[in-house]
Amino acid sequence: MTTVIQGSFDAPTIISKIVEGLTATDDFTLIDENAVDNFNQTGYCLQHVPTGQYVTFIHGKALFADYGSNINNLPRYTLGIRVIFSKEWDTATHTYSGTTMRGFIPFYARGDDVDLTTLSMLVSPNVFSTSLWIDKYGIIMTVQNTYSYGVGVFAALEFFPNTWVEYDDAEECPAVLYCKRSGDAWSSRAPIGMTHTNRPADGHPAEGFFYIRPYRFACQTYASNGNTLAGLNQHEGAFVEREAYRSEANNKVYFQFPKYENDVASARKPYAETRRWFKVSVTGGLQIGDILSWVDSGGTTHKFIVAVVDGSGMYCAIPYESAFDYAVSPKQ
Fold it and tell me: Domain residues for 36?
C-alpha cells in the first residue's frame, strides 16, 4: 500500500496522514492515539511490526539544543514534529520507555532573542504546503513554511530490511531519520543538535540538518553552552558529494543517491544507501515539478518529482511513481 499526498495542511493533519499511511501497510500498527511526551504534548505511537520497535509522532515544541541545554543561559524552544524512537511503550502512562532516542522535524527556527512555544503556530489557520510519499519503508516528505520564522524542510524516515543494509551493527531498529532545512544564518541555529551550513558561494541559503540512527547515535552538534561540538558537524549523516543537474551536453540528468552513515565524524561507515530521494541543484537546469525517470539494474523504472523545500535555494527529488522496493529490487 502506497500513499501519495500533496496539499496544504496544519501539523496535526500532516501527522494524522502519516499515521494513516503507515498503518495502511502491514508493517506498522497503531499502538496509542493518546501518546504523551515529556512536554505533555500529545500524538500517536506506532509499532514497526517486523522489528517490534516503537515510533511516536507528536506536534509541538522542542528544546533548542542538545536535548535540554540552554543557549545564552536561557531555555530556548522551536516548533515542529517530534519523532521519538523507543524499544518499549508504557500503556499506563501513554509514553515511551526503555531505550529511547528523540528526533525533530522543525517547521520554524529562531534567533537568539526569540522563543517559539506557541502551539497555535502549528495549527489551522496556519497551513503548510506538503508533499508526502508513505509506504511500508517509511516516509519521504517536503514542507514549506512561509510564515514568520518559518523554514522549508525535507525529511526522510526509512526502515530497511536487513538484506539492504551494508552490515549488521547489532542495533535492533534498522531505520534512519534524516531532515534538512533552510533558513537565514540566525534562524539556522536549530533544535536538539541540528546544525547549519552557510553556502553563499553556490546560491544556497543557510541549511540545517538533523540525523538519527537509532539507537546508535544522534547527530548532535551543539554543546550546552551553544558551542559547536568538534567533529560531529563535518558530515550530515546522509552524505552526497554532488547534487543532481541536467547535462548541458546531452540533456541527461546526473545524480547521486545519498548514503546514510553510522559515523558522522568520519563518514566512513556507510550503513545503507537510499534509493528514494536525492538532492537537486537549484542552478542545475532542473525545475520544480520536473519528473525524472531512473531505470534500476533489474530494468524497473522509478519516477521522481523535483519538489521545492525552499524556493530560493533547496530542491529535493522525491518518489512520484513506483518507488524503489528494498526487499525486491536489486541491490546495486
Answer: 3-250+257-277
Residue 20 phi, psi dihedral angles, 5° rounding: -60, -40
230 lies in some domain: yes
Residue 323 inside a domain? The answer is no
In a domain, 147, yes or no: yes
Q: How far is CA 312 from CA 24, 32, 152, 209, in A?
A: 35, 39, 10, 17
Q: How many domains does the chain have?
A: 1
Find, among 11, 28, 27, the residue nearest to 19 by Cα: 28
Q: Regarding predicted confidence, which is higher, 263 or 287? A: 287
| Type and span of the H or E element at 17 | helix 11-23
pTM value surpassing 0.85:
yes
Q: In 21-44, which positions are buried (b, 16+ CB within 10 angstroms) versus exposed (e)?
A: bbbebebbeebbeebbbeeeebbb
**How far apart (Å, rounded) are the C-alpha atoms in residues 43 and 56?**
7
Please indicate, yes or no, if residue 115 is contained in any of the structural domains: yes
Chain-centroid distance of CA 229 in Å reads 21
Instruction: For residue 241, name the pLDDT band (cuts at 50, 70, 90).
Output: low
